[in-house]
């Protein structure tokens, strides 16, 4: 069994090692800025490309954090289901491309971060739906494209046998498409492994178990 302790985000924020960018509280609010607003709450203007604005917010926040922080982008696929017809999977993928452009944001994903994590839903009914809609098509394109771009993929799923008191589900670590683009001498022994384990979240800690 492996025990993985959580991170005290309040303490990390106080020490300047953590910044949370709220991109949802004002998602459908008017775009006018209040005098006291700052970059920690994203408020997009209708006069500029939203992907450029998000990239600028992320870049500014990363420059404020000490060291080389990890960049975690969570819930970006929500925009596909938010009822905004002008946001598609290619638009979200272009946001990541903007962060990697040398001329515009100076290789944000490599210069200012140690690693980047992108979290999204990969529900089977969305990815492999028999009844194709704009949402299922965009979700499938986004998930598939990110898998090809990723160095590693961590996936969570419930137990196939149903609920259990001592186990929350299954965590699986596999290689992404970009893993094969890296020279072999840059990979550690842990990077070579692909594995699957049971996990349980208990009192803010994650416990991993091997299959019996």
Estimate the global geometry from the Cα principal axes: globular
Q: State the end-to-end distance.
A: 11 Å
- Rg over alpha carbons: 19 Å
SSE order: EHHEHHHEHHEEEE
In what range is the share of β-strand residues? 15-25%
What does this structure look like?
By secondary structure, the protein is an alpha+beta fold. It is built from 7 helices and 7 strands. The protein has helices at residues 9-14, 50-64, 89-99, 102-105, 108-111, 124-127, 134-149; strands at residues 2-5, 70-74, 115-119, 152-157, 169-175, 195-202, 205-209. The strands form 2 sheets. The chain has a 5-stranded antiparallel sheet with strand order 1-7-6-5-4, with no helix packed on it. The protein has a two-stranded parallel sheet with strand order 2-3. A hairpin with a 2-residue loop joins strand 6 and strand 7 (205-209).
List the main descriptive attributes of the protein structure presented here.
7 strands; 2 domains; 19% strand; globular; 212 residues; single chain; alpha+beta; 7 helices; 28% helix; two-stranded parallel sheet
Topology, please?
Elements: E1 2-5, H1 9-14, H2 50-64, E2 70-74, H3 89-99, H4 102-105, H5 108-111, E3 115-119, H6 124-127, H7 134-149, E4 152-157, E5 169-175, E6 195-202, E7 205-209
Parallel strand pairs: 2-3
Antiparallel strand pairs: 1-7, 4-5, 5-6, 6-7
Give me a quick take on this structure:
The protein contains seven helices and seven strands. The chain is an alpha+beta fold and 212 residues long.
């Amino acid at each position: 069994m492996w025990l993985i302790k959580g991170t005290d985000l309040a303490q990390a924020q106080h020490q300047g090692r953590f910044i949370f960018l709220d991109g949802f509280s004002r998602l459908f609010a008017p775009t006018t800025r209040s005098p006291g607003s700052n970059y920690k709450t994203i408020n997009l203007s209708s006069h500029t490309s939203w992907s450029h604005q998000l990239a600028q917010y992320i870049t500014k926040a990363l420059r404020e954090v000490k060291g080389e922080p990890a960049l975690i982008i969570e819930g970006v696929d929500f925009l596909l289901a938010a009822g905004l017809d002008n946001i598609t999977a290619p638009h979200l993928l272009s946001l990541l491309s903007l962060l990697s452009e040398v001329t515009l944001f100076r290789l944000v994903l490599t210069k200012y971060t140690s690693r980047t994590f992108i979290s999204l839903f990969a529900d089977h009914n969305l990815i492999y739906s028999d009844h194709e809609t704009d949402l299922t098509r965009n979700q499938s394109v986004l998930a598939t494209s990110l898998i090809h771009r990723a160095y590693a993929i961590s996936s969570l799923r419930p137990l196939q046998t149903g609920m259990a008191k001592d186990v929350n589900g299954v965590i699986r670590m596999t290689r992404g498409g970009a893993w094969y683009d890296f020279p072999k001498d840059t990979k550690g022994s842990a990077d070579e492994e692909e594995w699957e384990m049971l996990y349980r979240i208990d009192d803010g800690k994650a416990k991993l178990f091997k299959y019996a």
